[in-house]
Write a structure and sequence with these properties.
Helix content: 40-55%
Structural class: alpha/beta
Distance between the termini: 58 Å
Strand content: 15-25%
CATH topology of the largest domain: D-Maltodextrin-Binding Protein, domain 2
Largest sheet: 5 strands, mixed
Order of helices and strands: HHHEEHEHEHEEEHEHEHEHEEH
Radius of gyration: 23 Å
Mean pLDDT: 84
CATH class of the largest domain: Alpha Beta
Strand order of the largest sheet: 4-3-5-12-6
Number of helices: 11
Length: 317
Protein backbone atom coordinates (compact mmCIF):
# COMPACT_ATOMS: atom_id res chain seq x y z
CA UNK A 1 0.00 0.00 0.00
CA UNK A 2 1.31 3.48 -0.86
CA UNK A 3 1.18 4.62 2.74
CA UNK A 4 3.62 1.99 4.00
CA UNK A 5 6.93 3.19 5.37
CA UNK A 6 6.21 6.93 5.25
CA UNK A 7 6.56 7.30 9.00
CA UNK A 8 9.90 5.50 9.40
CA UNK A 9 12.24 7.07 11.91
CA UNK A 10 9.82 9.18 13.95
CA UNK A 11 8.79 8.68 17.57
CA UNK A 12 5.68 6.73 16.53
CA UNK A 13 7.40 4.06 14.46
CA UNK A 14 5.96 1.35 16.69
CA UNK A 15 2.45 2.18 15.48
CA UNK A 16 0.94 0.96 12.25
CA UNK A 17 1.98 3.65 9.76
CA UNK A 18 -1.33 3.46 7.89
CA UNK A 19 -3.32 3.99 11.06
CA UNK A 20 -1.22 7.00 12.07
CA UNK A 21 -1.72 8.61 8.65
CA UNK A 22 -5.46 8.24 8.99
CA UNK A 23 -5.30 9.65 12.50
CA UNK A 24 -3.55 12.68 11.00
CA UNK A 25 -6.34 13.01 8.42
CA UNK A 26 -9.06 12.80 11.08
CA UNK A 27 -7.36 15.34 13.35
CA UNK A 28 -6.84 17.87 10.53
CA UNK A 29 -10.45 17.41 9.41
CA UNK A 30 -11.86 17.87 12.92
CA UNK A 31 -9.54 20.57 14.28
CA UNK A 32 -9.05 22.57 11.10
CA UNK A 33 -5.34 23.46 11.37
CA UNK A 34 -2.07 21.59 11.12
CA UNK A 35 -0.87 23.20 14.35
CA UNK A 36 -3.86 22.00 16.37
CA UNK A 37 -3.79 18.55 14.78
CA UNK A 38 -0.07 18.11 15.45
CA UNK A 39 -0.50 19.17 19.09
CA UNK A 40 -3.46 16.79 19.54
CA UNK A 41 -1.49 13.85 18.10
CA UNK A 42 1.75 14.90 19.84
CA UNK A 43 3.51 14.97 16.49
CA UNK A 44 5.85 17.54 15.02
CA UNK A 45 4.36 19.57 12.19
CA UNK A 46 6.88 18.11 9.68
CA UNK A 47 5.76 14.58 10.65
CA UNK A 48 2.12 15.56 10.26
CA UNK A 49 2.81 17.21 6.91
CA UNK A 50 4.59 14.04 5.81
CA UNK A 51 1.51 11.95 6.58
CA UNK A 52 -0.72 14.42 4.75
CA UNK A 53 1.59 14.45 1.72
CA UNK A 54 1.50 10.65 1.55
CA UNK A 55 -2.29 10.58 1.74
CA UNK A 56 -2.51 13.22 -0.99
CA UNK A 57 -0.34 11.08 -3.26
CA UNK A 58 -2.25 7.91 -2.46
CA UNK A 59 -5.68 9.41 -3.14
CA UNK A 60 -4.58 11.76 -5.93
CA UNK A 61 -6.33 14.68 -4.25
CA UNK A 62 -5.26 17.71 -2.21
CA UNK A 63 -7.70 16.62 0.54
CA UNK A 64 -7.31 19.94 2.41
CA UNK A 65 -6.93 23.47 1.03
CA UNK A 66 -5.65 26.42 3.04
CA UNK A 67 -8.19 29.17 3.66
CA UNK A 68 -8.80 32.11 5.98
CA UNK A 69 -10.44 29.82 8.54
CA UNK A 70 -7.84 27.05 8.35
CA UNK A 71 -7.63 23.81 6.37
CA UNK A 72 -10.81 23.35 4.35
CA UNK A 73 -11.57 19.73 3.30
CA UNK A 74 -12.13 19.00 -0.36
CA UNK A 75 -15.14 17.06 -1.63
CA UNK A 76 -12.99 13.92 -1.71
CA UNK A 77 -11.92 14.46 1.92
CA UNK A 78 -15.51 14.88 3.04
CA UNK A 79 -16.35 11.64 1.28
CA UNK A 80 -13.45 9.82 2.95
CA UNK A 81 -14.09 11.17 6.43
CA UNK A 82 -17.05 8.93 7.23
CA UNK A 83 -15.15 5.73 6.38
CA UNK A 84 -11.97 6.88 8.13
CA UNK A 85 -13.85 7.91 11.29
CA UNK A 86 -15.58 4.51 11.35
CA UNK A 87 -12.25 2.73 10.91
CA UNK A 88 -10.65 4.65 13.78
CA UNK A 89 -13.62 4.01 16.05
CA UNK A 90 -13.26 0.28 15.43
CA UNK A 91 -9.49 0.38 15.92
CA UNK A 92 -9.73 2.43 19.10
CA UNK A 93 -12.42 0.18 20.50
CA UNK A 94 -10.04 -2.76 20.24
CA UNK A 95 -6.95 -0.88 21.39
CA UNK A 96 -8.63 0.68 24.41
CA UNK A 97 -10.43 -2.42 25.62
CA UNK A 98 -9.61 -3.04 29.26
CA UNK A 99 -10.44 -6.25 31.11
CA UNK A 100 -10.92 -4.50 34.46
CA UNK A 101 -11.15 -1.07 36.01
CA UNK A 102 -10.28 -0.58 39.65
CA UNK A 103 -11.34 2.95 40.65
CA UNK A 104 -9.51 2.73 43.96
CA UNK A 105 -6.12 2.34 42.26
CA UNK A 106 -6.66 4.04 38.89
CA UNK A 107 -4.83 7.25 37.96
CA UNK A 108 -6.72 7.79 34.73
CA UNK A 109 -7.73 11.25 33.50
CA UNK A 110 -11.48 11.37 32.75
CA UNK A 111 -12.54 14.12 30.36
CA UNK A 112 -16.04 15.60 30.63
CA UNK A 113 -17.56 18.08 28.20
CA UNK A 114 -20.05 20.57 29.64
CA UNK A 115 -20.79 24.27 29.87
CA UNK A 116 -19.34 26.64 32.48
CA UNK A 117 -22.56 26.53 34.49
CA UNK A 118 -22.79 22.78 33.96
CA UNK A 119 -19.34 22.40 35.47
CA UNK A 120 -20.39 24.52 38.46
CA UNK A 121 -23.41 22.28 38.97
CA UNK A 122 -21.91 18.84 38.32
CA UNK A 123 -18.26 18.91 39.27
CA UNK A 124 -18.24 19.77 43.01
CA UNK A 125 -20.53 16.88 43.96
CA UNK A 126 -18.88 14.48 41.50
CA UNK A 127 -15.38 15.30 42.76
CA UNK A 128 -16.50 14.95 46.38
CA UNK A 129 -17.94 11.50 45.64
CA UNK A 130 -15.00 10.28 43.57
CA UNK A 131 -12.44 11.65 46.03
CA UNK A 132 -13.67 9.17 48.61
CA UNK A 133 -13.66 6.03 46.46
CA UNK A 134 -11.17 6.80 43.68
CA UNK A 135 -8.62 9.30 45.02
CA UNK A 136 -6.17 8.79 42.14
CA UNK A 137 -8.59 9.71 39.38
CA UNK A 138 -8.22 13.11 37.74
CA UNK A 139 -10.75 15.15 35.79
CA UNK A 140 -10.52 17.56 32.90
CA UNK A 141 -13.53 19.69 31.93
CA UNK A 142 -13.57 20.29 28.17
CA UNK A 143 -15.68 23.21 26.88
CA UNK A 144 -16.55 21.76 23.48
CA UNK A 145 -19.30 22.99 21.18
CA UNK A 146 -21.82 20.31 20.34
CA UNK A 147 -20.97 20.17 16.64
CA UNK A 148 -17.61 18.68 17.68
CA UNK A 149 -18.88 16.58 20.56
CA UNK A 150 -19.85 13.49 18.55
CA UNK A 151 -16.40 13.14 16.97
CA UNK A 152 -14.71 13.90 20.31
CA UNK A 153 -16.74 11.19 22.05
CA UNK A 154 -16.10 8.73 19.23
CA UNK A 155 -12.33 9.29 19.24
CA UNK A 156 -12.04 9.16 23.04
CA UNK A 157 -10.89 12.79 23.24
CA UNK A 158 -13.89 13.24 25.54
CA UNK A 159 -15.24 10.43 27.73
CA UNK A 160 -18.64 11.89 28.60
CA UNK A 161 -20.75 14.95 27.79
CA UNK A 162 -23.31 16.54 30.11
CA UNK A 163 -25.96 19.01 29.01
CA UNK A 164 -29.13 19.59 27.02
CA UNK A 165 -28.57 19.16 23.30
CA UNK A 166 -31.19 18.77 20.61
CA UNK A 167 -29.54 16.29 18.28
CA UNK A 168 -26.57 14.00 17.84
CA UNK A 169 -25.77 11.24 15.39
CA UNK A 170 -26.88 7.64 15.88
CA UNK A 171 -23.55 6.64 17.43
CA UNK A 172 -24.13 8.81 20.51
CA UNK A 173 -26.06 7.20 23.35
CA UNK A 174 -27.66 9.17 26.17
CA UNK A 175 -29.44 8.86 29.48
CA UNK A 176 -32.02 11.44 30.64
CA UNK A 177 -31.11 12.84 34.05
CA UNK A 178 -33.60 15.55 35.01
CA UNK A 179 -35.73 18.42 33.68
CA UNK A 180 -35.16 22.08 34.51
CA UNK A 181 -37.71 24.87 33.88
CA UNK A 182 -36.92 28.39 32.72
CA UNK A 183 -37.09 31.44 35.01
CA UNK A 184 -36.20 35.11 34.67
CA UNK A 185 -33.52 37.09 36.49
CA UNK A 186 -34.17 40.76 37.21
CA UNK A 187 -32.57 43.29 39.53
CA UNK A 188 -33.91 43.50 43.03
CA UNK A 189 -35.34 47.01 42.69
CA UNK A 190 -36.59 46.81 39.10
CA UNK A 191 -39.06 49.71 38.76
CA UNK A 192 -41.70 47.83 36.76
CA UNK A 193 -41.37 44.18 37.82
CA UNK A 194 -42.67 43.22 41.25
CA UNK A 195 -43.19 39.71 42.62
CA UNK A 196 -44.58 38.35 39.34
CA UNK A 197 -43.88 38.96 35.67
CA UNK A 198 -46.68 38.75 33.11
CA UNK A 199 -46.17 38.29 29.38
CA UNK A 200 -47.21 41.84 28.46
CA UNK A 201 -44.60 43.33 30.79
CA UNK A 202 -42.05 40.80 29.58
CA UNK A 203 -42.60 41.95 25.99
CA UNK A 204 -42.25 45.65 26.85
CA UNK A 205 -38.93 45.26 28.68
CA UNK A 206 -35.40 45.01 27.30
CA UNK A 207 -33.65 41.64 27.28
CA UNK A 208 -30.13 40.31 27.45
CA UNK A 209 -29.30 36.95 25.87
CA UNK A 210 -26.25 34.73 25.86
CA UNK A 211 -25.59 34.30 22.15
CA UNK A 212 -23.62 31.09 22.35
CA UNK A 213 -21.96 29.91 19.11
CA UNK A 214 -23.34 26.43 19.83
CA UNK A 215 -26.72 26.55 18.09
CA UNK A 216 -27.57 22.97 19.07
CA UNK A 217 -27.65 23.86 22.74
CA UNK A 218 -31.07 24.24 24.37
CA UNK A 219 -30.34 27.87 25.28
CA UNK A 220 -30.61 28.81 21.60
CA UNK A 221 -34.39 28.35 21.88
CA UNK A 222 -34.62 31.16 24.46
CA UNK A 223 -33.53 33.84 22.01
CA UNK A 224 -35.98 32.60 19.40
CA UNK A 225 -38.82 32.53 21.93
CA UNK A 226 -38.15 36.15 22.93
CA UNK A 227 -38.11 37.23 19.28
CA UNK A 228 -41.37 35.36 18.64
CA UNK A 229 -43.30 37.17 21.38
CA UNK A 230 -41.53 40.54 21.68
CA UNK A 231 -39.70 41.06 18.40
CA UNK A 232 -35.99 41.20 17.64
CA UNK A 233 -35.73 44.80 18.90
CA UNK A 234 -36.48 43.62 22.45
CA UNK A 235 -33.01 42.03 22.62
CA UNK A 236 -30.68 44.95 23.22
CA UNK A 237 -27.64 43.16 24.69
CA UNK A 238 -25.88 39.96 23.61
CA UNK A 239 -23.03 38.38 25.52
CA UNK A 240 -20.92 35.31 24.81
CA UNK A 241 -21.20 33.65 28.23
CA UNK A 242 -24.02 32.71 30.58
CA UNK A 243 -21.90 34.04 33.45
CA UNK A 244 -21.68 37.60 32.10
CA UNK A 245 -25.42 38.31 31.79
CA UNK A 246 -26.26 38.36 35.55
CA UNK A 247 -23.75 41.14 36.23
CA UNK A 248 -25.40 43.27 33.55
CA UNK A 249 -28.88 42.54 34.93
CA UNK A 250 -27.84 43.47 38.47
CA UNK A 251 -27.07 47.02 37.31
CA UNK A 252 -29.74 47.56 34.65
CA UNK A 253 -33.42 47.00 33.91
CA UNK A 254 -32.78 44.09 31.54
CA UNK A 255 -34.34 40.65 31.90
CA UNK A 256 -32.24 37.51 31.58
CA UNK A 257 -34.16 34.30 30.82
CA UNK A 258 -32.29 31.17 31.88
CA UNK A 259 -32.83 27.74 33.35
CA UNK A 260 -33.54 27.57 37.05
CA UNK A 261 -30.18 25.92 37.75
CA UNK A 262 -28.32 28.75 35.99
CA UNK A 263 -30.40 31.40 37.76
CA UNK A 264 -29.93 29.85 41.18
CA UNK A 265 -26.18 29.61 40.70
CA UNK A 266 -25.77 33.26 39.75
CA UNK A 267 -28.50 34.80 41.93
CA UNK A 268 -25.93 34.96 44.74
CA UNK A 269 -24.69 38.15 43.01
CA UNK A 270 -26.01 41.06 45.10
CA UNK A 271 -29.05 42.84 43.69
CA UNK A 272 -30.62 39.94 41.77
CA UNK A 273 -33.86 38.05 42.21
CA UNK A 274 -35.70 35.28 40.37
CA UNK A 275 -39.27 35.48 39.03
CA UNK A 276 -41.32 32.95 37.10
CA UNK A 277 -40.91 33.08 33.33
CA UNK A 278 -44.10 33.90 31.37
CA UNK A 279 -42.78 32.43 28.11
CA UNK A 280 -44.38 29.14 27.02
CA UNK A 281 -41.02 27.35 27.09
CA UNK A 282 -40.96 23.67 27.99
CA UNK A 283 -38.29 22.64 30.51
CA UNK A 284 -34.97 21.43 29.18
CA UNK A 285 -33.98 17.79 29.60
CA UNK A 286 -30.43 17.35 30.86
CA UNK A 287 -28.71 14.15 29.75
CA UNK A 288 -25.37 12.43 29.93
CA UNK A 289 -23.97 11.41 26.53
CA UNK A 290 -21.38 8.82 25.50
CA UNK A 291 -20.43 7.08 22.26
CA UNK A 292 -21.22 3.50 21.37
CA UNK A 293 -17.61 3.10 20.20
CA UNK A 294 -16.50 3.54 23.83
CA UNK A 295 -19.30 1.44 25.27
CA UNK A 296 -16.92 -1.33 26.31
CA UNK A 297 -14.70 0.94 28.40
CA UNK A 298 -15.35 0.01 32.06
CA UNK A 299 -14.02 3.35 33.33
CA UNK A 300 -16.61 5.29 31.34
CA UNK A 301 -19.35 2.90 32.46
CA UNK A 302 -18.24 3.47 36.08
CA UNK A 303 -18.27 7.25 35.58
CA UNK A 304 -21.79 7.11 34.12
CA UNK A 305 -22.95 5.12 37.14
CA UNK A 306 -21.55 7.73 39.54
CA UNK A 307 -23.29 10.55 37.70
CA UNK A 308 -26.53 8.59 37.58
CA UNK A 309 -26.34 7.98 41.32
CA UNK A 310 -25.74 11.66 42.06
CA UNK A 311 -27.97 13.43 39.56
CA UNK A 312 -30.72 11.16 38.24
CA UNK A 313 -33.98 12.95 38.99
CA UNK A 314 -31.98 15.81 40.53
CA UNK A 315 -34.08 18.81 41.58
CA UNK A 316 -31.55 20.47 43.83
CA UNK A 317 -29.96 23.78 43.05
Amino acid sequence: MAARGANDGDDHAERSPELLHYRAFEAIYRLGTLTAAAAHLRLSQPALSKSLALLRRYYGDELFLRGKLGMKPTARARQLYVAIADMLRIADGELRAQPDFDPASSHRVLRISCSEVGAIHFMPRLIARVGQIAPGLRFEVVPLMSRHTESALASGEVDLALGAYTDFGPGVLSQPMYEVPYVCLVRQDHPRIRETLDLATFCREQHIVASLPDRMHAFSRVEQAIVDVAGAAAITVRVHSLLIAPYVVAQSDHIFTATRHVAQRVAVIPGLRIVDCPLPLPPILVRQYWHSAQGGDPAIAWLRAQIESLFLGDLRS
